[in-house]
Amino acid sequence: MQTIGILGGGQLARMLVLAGAPLGFRFLVVDSAPDACAAQVAPLLRADWRDFDKLAEFARAIDVATFDFENVPAETAHWLTEHTRVFPNPRALAISQDRLAEKSLFREIGLDTPAFAAVDNRDDLARAVERIGTPAILKTRRLGYDGKGQFRLKSPADIDAAWSTLNGAPSILEAFVPFERELSVIAVRSREGEFRTYPLTQNWHADGILSVSLAPAPHSDVLAPIAIAHARRIAEEIDYVGTFALELFVRDGKLLGNEMAPRVHNSGHWTIEGAPASQFENHVRAVLGLPLGDTTALGVNVMLNWVGELPAATPILAEPRAHWHDYGKSPRAGRKVGHATICAANTAEMHERLARIGKALGREQQVEPVLAVLG
Ligand code: ATP
Ligand code: MG
Ligand code: MG
């Protein structure tokens, strides 16, 4: 029986455990928080990322290490490679931790990005605003997630406010893209180099946080093979092993790379019930060097994210093929506390089901953009 160690004990770790347990694998989670949500389903070793005595204990107890949290310090990831097998590799992790390295990689492999410039001081920012123009977004190179560590500049008059809000952290300025839509590729590559992707997912964000996903993304016949080829090139370039997400904007019908996540991803949660093998199961398979599972989509799938607090579960539980996920976290503004996945045979059935659910939950606004594209 093999044991998989997970650095980070959030809901992603929890879902990895729930996917890997039926295959006979054991898990050990490292997190400094006593109430880490994965501790509900797996043993927890409490340690912070530089507690190398505890991490040595962790490494001895596992067969392979992986991540639920993408911002584990590079030093820790490197140290671990000397004590156990680690997937994805520390270089892949380091690139996706840094927006500058990440966007540079996208360009190298031929994926366009929004115009961007590195910003290390206030003068850089002023020059970048001159070159890129406004509106623009200043993003910290590191540690940002769920739209945190970002400042939207409407005009050059916002330069000082942007610089002081981000506390002078090394950043990049990006052109604001008035995109037609946002897509993500959920991809997985195994230790043997086998590569698979799920059908493209279309995503809607609210306040910088994922709100709704729809898969397969409609009207994507032309873009899907291009997006998938980009994901494959990225994975091969950095010898990536495991599940990852590539976030894309569609502007004037063309793809622009936003960022990648070196882990299972919120926009792939629909694969738990909407695909024969979920992104979580495939991550487990990939890091253990096993054959990958089937990534086709079963019908049409919508994921609704619960941010801040959970709504009533009953309207979801009352629907056929609707699935409820409560991460067991205490409610807090801006915190991801659960999600629901609704599966249907076709778009007409999805439209009907989703409209009913939106109304019953009083979440008409959240489901509205999906209903619009389902037609
Ligand atoms: P995540 O939780 O996905 O890791 P993050 O904090 O890393 O989020 P981004 O993905 O860069 O942040 O941005 C969050 C959202 O903000 C994007 O999905 C998109 O909706 C919007 N956004 C980000 N950058 C741009 C841009 N250059 N132009 C327009 N919208 C943008
Ligand atoms: Mg991100
Ligand atoms: Mg993002």
Helix content: 25-40%
- What would CATH call the homologous superfamily of the largest domain? ATP-grasp fold, B domain
In terms of per-residue confidence, which ranges show pLDDT below 50 for 5 or more consecutive residues?
A: none
Please, what is the average pLDDT?
96
* The first-level CATH class name of the largest domain: Alpha Beta
Count of DSSP H/I helices: 13
- The proportion of strand residues reads 25-35%
User: What composes the largest sheet?
Assistant: 9 strands, antiparallel
Which molecules other than protein and nucleic acid are bound?
Answer: adenosine-5'-triphosphate, magnesium ion
Binding site for ATP: 99, 139, 144-150, 174-177, 182, 205, 258-259
Pathway: Purine metabolism; IMP biosynthesis via de novo pathway; 5-amino-1-(5-phospho-D-ribosyl)imidazole-4-carboxylate from 5-amino-1-(5-phospho-D-ribosyl)imidazole (N5-CAIR route): step 1/2
Enzyme class: ligase
Organism: Dokdonella soli
Characterise this structure.
This protein is of the alpha+beta class. The protein has three domains: 3-86, Rossmann fold, CATH 3.40.50; 115-175, ATP-grasp fold, A domain (Dna Ligase, domain 1, 2-Layer Sandwich), CATH 3.30.1490; 181-374, 2-Layer Sandwich (D-amino Acid Aminotransferase, Chain A, domain 1). It contains 13 helices and 18 strands. The protein has helices spanning 11-20, 52-61, 74-81, 90-97, 99-108, 122-132, 159-165, 223-237, 271-274, 279-287, 314-317, 347-361, 364-374, and strands at residues 3-7, 26-31, 44-46, 64-67, 85-86, 116-119, 136-140, 150-153, 171-175, 181-189, 195-197, 201-206, 209-215, 242-251, 254-261, 300-307, 322-326, 336-344. Strands 10, 11, 12, 13, 14, 15, 16, 17 and 18 form a nine-stranded antiparallel sheet that branches. Helix 3 links the parallel strand 4 (64-67) and strand 5. It is globular. It starts with a strand and ends with a helix. The site of adenosine-5'-triphosphate has 17 residues, from strand 7 and strand 15. One magnesium ion binds at residues 145, 259, 261. It catalyses: 5-amino-1-(5-phospho-beta-D-ribosyl)imidazole + hydrogencarbonate + ATP = 5-carboxyamino-1-(5-phospho-D-ribosyl)imidazole + ADP + phosphate + 2 H(+). This is N5-carboxyaminoimidazole ribonucleotide synthase. InterPro entries: ATP-grasp, ATP-grasp_carboxylate-amine, ATP_grasp_subdomain_1, PreATP-grasp_dom_sf, PurK, PurK_C, PurT/PurK_preATP-grasp, Rudment_hybrid_motif. Belongs to the PurK/PurT family.
